[in-house]
Amino acid sequence: MRYISTRHGSQGNPQPLGFEDIMLAGLARDGGLYLPSEWPQFSKAEIAGLKGLGYTELAFRVMRPFVGEAFDEATFRRLIGEAYASFETPEVAPLKPLGDSGLHLLELFHGPTLAFKDVALQLLGRMLDHTLTVRGQHATIVGATSGDTGSAAIEAVRDRKTIDIFMLFPKGRVSEVQRRQMTTVLAPNVHNIAVQGTFDDCQDLAKACFNDLAFRDRHALTAVNSINFARVMAQIVYYFWAALKLGAPERPVAFTVPSGNFGNVYAGYAARQMGLPISHFVVGANSNDILARFFESGTMTTSEVVPTFSPSMDIQISSNFERLLFDLYDRNGATLADAMTTFRSTGTLKVGANALAGVRQLFDAGRLDDAGTLAAIADCRRRFGETIDPHTAVGYAVAQQHRRDASIPMVVLATAHPAKFPDAVEKATGERPALPARLGDLLDRAERVDGLRNDVEALKAMIDERRAAATAPARTKVRT
Ligand SMILES: *Cc1c(COP(=O)(O)O)cnc(C)c1O
Question: Does residue 313 line the site of ligand 1, with CB under 6 A?
Answer without folding.
Answer: yes
